Amino acid sequence: xxxxxxxxxxxxxxxxxxxxxxxxxxxxxxxxxxxxxxxxxxxxxxxxxxxxxxxxxxxxxxxxxxxxxxxxxxxxxxxxxxxxxxxxxxxxxxxxxxxxxxxxxxxxxxxxxxxxxxxxxxxxxxxxxxxxxxxxxxxxxxxxxxxxxxxxxxxxxxxxxxxxxxxxxxxxxxxxxxxxxxxxxxxxxxxxxxxxxxxxxxxxxxxxxxxxxxxxxxxxxxxxxxxxxxxx
Length: 232
Fold this sequence. Notes:
The chain is of the alpha/beta class and about 230 residues long. It is built from 10 helices and 6 strands. It has helices at about 1-15, 35-40, 55-60, 80-90, 95-110, 125-135, 135-150, 170-180, 190, 205-215, and strands spanning about 70-75, 120, 160, 185, 195-205, 225-230. Strand 5, helix 10 (about 205-215) and strand 6 form a beta-alpha-beta unit. About 35% of the residues are buried. Mean pLDDT is about 90; it is low at about 5-15.
């Protein structure tokens, strides 16, 4: 009886205060969460989990040795994916990162890749930025991946030493210079011999992931892979 009454009340509230899709801002219908079905279908997915020699991996090879390079979506300026990422990073919507992680984790699992990784390591925010935001969006994405892949997340592996400037308007060289010396390993024993899935929210030039993978490779020769929500 209680559940029926609760459902009726929820429907009543939704009628006057509907949740809106984070991508198109239309009202969500019952059963939809954060993103409407139409946007979810129309957002450009990469399917890199089915193609080991994909364009993202090709872009980064030669700069960092990668086993897999995975991205859920293709990023386009002012597109639906950008709207979702904006909500995740700037609108206090950490649960969106978990949802996207679960979504991609299920796809990675179905592609037979869940046995390819030992640890999931999110790219860290500077402590002051994480305190201001209240969470690390990459860690939330990693949490969702972990739930579906049943692979542990370690947030104590990497540390960001300095607060870098935003990468948005920087050139490729400026992006690399901005992050080349800002990370360090906090717990080297935990990654030694482990196959790491390094996780970030968006890959543009790949400078951040390249810097993180480089310092991990200094203490471990095990394969490193990357996964992100979107590739720009």
